[in-house]
Amino acid sequence: MAKNKKNVLIFFTDQQRADTLGVHGNPLNLTPNIDYDAMTGTHCENAFTPQPVCLPARAALQTGKYSSEINCNTNDDVLPTTERTLAHHFNDAGYETAYFGKWHLNACDTAPFKEPQGGYKTWCAANILEFISDAYETVLFDETGKEVRLPGYRVDATIDLAIRHIDKKKDQPFFMMVSLLEPHMQNTRDDYPAPTGYQSRYIDAWTPPDLRALGGTSAQHLPGYYGMVKRIDEAYGRVKDALRSLGILENTIVLFTSDHGCHFKTRNTEYKRSCHDSSLKIPMVWSGAQFSHGGRLPNNISLVDVPPTLLDACGIPVPDDMSGQSILPLVNRTDNNFREHIYAEISESHVGRCVRTSRWKYSIRQLPDNTFIDDFLYDIKADPWELNNIIGYRSHQQVVKVMRERLVKQMLAIGQEEPTIIDAEEVDSKQYAVTEAEVFL
Questions:
Q1: Contact 153, 231 (CB under 8 A)
Q2: Half-sphere exposure of 80 (CA within 13 A, CB side)
Q3: Of 104, 145, 275, 351, which residue has the fewest beta carbons closer than 10 angstroms?
Q4: Per-residue model confidence (pLDDT) at position 319
Q5: What pLDDT score was predicted for residue 351?
């Protein structure tokens, strides 16, 4: 392997809530391998997606830009070929680049690609894996567009590909993305198919407080969902063991994260399109190289921060047009000058925009005439599960003012038009009035 060059492996899941991890309070021991790295590596305890929809979130991860900046607003859009992805940057730096699993950056096309996408040299993937494969029928396409059918559970089949490739490229610096469909539902039948025997382990198991309060489809779907998460953790452990056995674990940056969460139809009639934390908050755990012993980071971190962080960690120049920030100064404790909020947007159904700080969440939703209206305000410290919407409360109008200003400033900064926002109907809550000076105390 080229001297001093670190390997990079992104272990990416689909629709995984942050609270599936033990370090986020899940008591079911679903993720002992990931939890171990969270406790011994670097754990971003407040990590969020900038778009709780598959394609837009993946576009942000590949480019370090918000999806609206690159016209990847819905699942029917296509990542522009003019955009430089992580693969392009790592190719230029002399890395072997590879992609395995779900791509979903080419609208909802199920056809095989005629060539690898996004600049990746090695490719065995499918655009919308959930429509062309099943839990025990994995179908991918190689660099020539040839169909590749793989045996076993879909998670295992994809991980087998990755491990074989790591073994082949162990003497060269590599950048690899392993993108699992799980624990996303099987769209063809609205099911969360766990490996055989795994779903029954979690019947009537622990339910997160927001789902316990609001219901949705969690009683029906959590057992399968948890079973999928358990297998994901086992697969993650297999990858780490492979790196260890090949003697390259310490020199490999491994990132575990997801594209968005899942609210199980508690906030609307869908699974993820919502600006609530159940959809926005994602697991994010780093290990290896500079991220060993980085500790727990309480900062608000977004998927758009991943590309600049990886480039920074590997000594590759970070382009000025990336909207994300490298978190390496936070990891190294050299600079805590990091933005206070995360920004998220939905531009498909349930269109909305929101900003979230450590204390407050403010969101607006779009009306049919393209104006916006105040949708919700939550006090995260007092109401972490977002069950008490205080938008319109007379006592919190200064909070709305400050958060709205921050939201509009963020929207303008990434090229969106200044929104017309209609105030929520005022309510006399009989609560203590929060002053502007107290908003961020």
A1: yes
A2: 13
A3: 145
A4: 97
A5: 85
- Please name the fold of domain 351-438: Arylsulfatase, C-terminal domain (3.30.1120)
Mean pLDDT of the region 178-187? 94
Which of the given ranges, 229-243, 356-370, 420-434, has the highest pLDDT on average? 229-243
Nearest to 379, CA basis, from 392, 369, 388: 388
CB-based contact 259:15 (threshold 8 Å)? yes
Q: Where are the alpha helices (DSSP H) in 318-436?
A: 328-331, 397-413
Mean pLDDT of 60-80: 93
3-state secondary structure (DSSP) of residue 386: coil
- Tell me the CA distances in angstroms from 233 to 88, 229, 329, 372, 436, one per residue in order: 29, 6, 28, 41, 44
Number of Cα atoms under 13 Å in the Cβ half of residue 279: 25
Residues 6 or more apart whose CB falls under 8 angstroms from that of 261 comprise: 15, 16, 17, 18, 49, 52, 272, 277, 278, 279, 280, 281, 282
Roughly how many angstroms between the first and final C-alpha of the chain, as a whole number?
49
Taking the C-alpha atoms of residue 402 and residue 440, their distance in angstroms, rounded to an integer, is 10
Q: What pTM does this model have?
A: 0.96
Pinpoint the alpha helices (H) of 122-268.
Answer: 129-132, 154-168, 209-214, 218-245
Task: State the helix-helix crossing angle for 154-168 and 218-245, rounded to 10 degrees.
Answer: 20
Please give the backbone phi and psi of residue 168, each rounded to the nearest 5 degrees, phi first: -70, -35
Which ranges in the chain are annotated with CATH 3.30.1120.10? 351-438
Would you state the structure tokens that stand for residue 32, as one six-digit string?
A: 């002992």
Q: Which ranges in the chain are annotated with CATH 3.40.720.10? A: 7-331
CATH number of 7-331: 3.40.720.10
The whole-number pLDDT of residue 1 equals 45
Using alpha carbons only, what angle is made at residue 109 by residues 133 and 90, rounded to the nearest 5 degrees?
90
Model pLDDT, residue 158: 98
Q: What is the DSSP letter of 434?
A: P
Residue 268 predicted with pLDDT over 90: no
pLDDT digits (tens, 9 = 90+) for 71-87: 999 989 989 999 999 99
Mean pLDDT of 195-221: 95
Nearest CA to 119 out of 93, 94, 89 is that of: 89
User: What are the structure tokens assigned to 40, written together?
Assistant: 């011994």
Sole residue written with tokens 């607003």 = 73
Measured in residues, the chain has a length of 441
Residues 165/122, Cβ–Cβ less than 8 Å: yes
Query: Which amino acid, 39?
Result: M
What's the mean pLDDT in 120-126? 94
- Residues 27, 46: Cα–Cα separation, whole Å: 19
Phi, psi at 180, each rounded to 5°: -90, 145
